[in-house]
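[step 3/7] inverse_fold.run input=structure_tokens len=340
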């Protein structure tokens, strides 16, 4: 099969590689239909995060068609349209048994720990496959994975009526977090980003206030927005020191900060501010199956503006040059690699 292989830092090649074989009774062979390009893959490509090690086939935001099933797989006919939940859990560690499977002690992520879906075929366990609603296209369904990341993050914040919120970062995860916050009923939401094009889209999606920290004082703008108190909730969706610190600075005393961004391993923040202002800082990683299922329902019900978020499409053959193009184009929100 053809696959886009991450062969070295800032290098990907379209190669002929063996089609994966089902190697476990609950395994499924899937023909990839659509796969989103995730920011974590872009950061892996540049070597910025260190979380993708070549050689590797990346890609984990996937919809596919079932073409072969393992011996114990039931209820998944050939030809089934599915969305792939890309985090595999062990099911037996203390975290899994406590219902926190997204932080499973032995979890594996498709496209990071095992070969991913920038390829014509991929294998994955049946328990991580969810039927794609008939009304959803393969392309729109591939948003279920990043949307479920946003759904999970918002669920951790314990939102109350009339809370104010700031989303730091207007990339796909940040904008999806904005969309999910709007669905909770919140109306007083600000978004911060260094791209004016992305901030314009944030306003179209319902942000009441937008902030470009290269041109404005974020804390001053938020103080005006909240009558001097700071926001009740901040969601950081970038993962670098500057944005993590911004999320702390604009949050009111005893407020809640949810860190979703996962870019730099080590960052610098004002720890005294966290302690003396009693800020609650929560890390949010991935999603649970319930988050994934909720995301599919939101997409099927037309509650997420997929047409505004997916603004670039490519074929697998464009892969070797695609990532450089995306890194040079902040106007691109979500790029989908489609196979048909």
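[step 3/7] decode complete -> sequence:
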């Amino acid at each position: 099969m053809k696959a886009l292989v991450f062969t070295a830092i800032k290098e990907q090649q379209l190669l002929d590689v063996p089609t994966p074989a089902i190697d476990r009774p609950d395994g499924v062979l899937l023909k990839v239909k659509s796969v989103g390009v995730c920011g974590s893959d872009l950061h892996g490509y540049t070597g910025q995060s260190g979380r993708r090690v070549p050689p590797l086939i990346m890609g984990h935001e996937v919809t596919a068609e079932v073409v072969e099933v393992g011996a114990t797989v039931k209820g998944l006919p050939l030809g089934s349209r599915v969305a792939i939940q890309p985090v595999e859990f062990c099911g037996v560690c203390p975290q899994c048994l406590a219902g926190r499977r997204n932080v499973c002690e032995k979890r594996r992520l498709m496209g990071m720990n095992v070969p991913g879906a920038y390829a014509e075929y991929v294998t994955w366990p049946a328990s991580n496959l969810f039927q794609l609603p008939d009304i959803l296209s393969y392309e729109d369904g591939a948003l279920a994975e990043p949307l479920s990341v946003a759904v999970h993050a918002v669920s951790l914040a314990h939102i109350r009526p009339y809370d104010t919120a700031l989303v730091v970062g207007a990339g796909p995860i940040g904008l999806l977090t904005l969309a999910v916050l709007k669905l909770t009923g919140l109306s007083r939401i600000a978004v911060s980003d260094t791209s004016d094009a992305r901030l314009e889209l944030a306003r179209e999606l319902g942000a009441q206030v937008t902030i470009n920290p290269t041109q404005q004082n974020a804390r001053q703008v938020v103080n005006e927005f909240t009558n001097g108190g700071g926001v009740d909730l901040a969601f950081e969706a970038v993962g670098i020191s500057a944005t993590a610190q911004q999320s702390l600075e604009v949050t009111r005393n005893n407020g809640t900060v949810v860190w979703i961004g996962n870019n730099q391993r080590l960052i610098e923040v004002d720890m005294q501010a966290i302690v003396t202002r009693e800020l609650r800082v929560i890390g949010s990683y991935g999603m649970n199956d319930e988050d994934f299922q909720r995301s599919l329902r939101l997409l099927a019900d037309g509650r997420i503006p997929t047409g505004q978020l997916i603004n670039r499409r490519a074929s697998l053959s464009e892969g070797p040059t695609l990532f450089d193009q995306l890194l040079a184009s902040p106007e691109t929100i979500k790029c989908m690699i489609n196979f048909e």
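[step 4/7] annotate
The two ends are 15 Å apart (CA to CA).
The chain has a mean pLDDT of 96.
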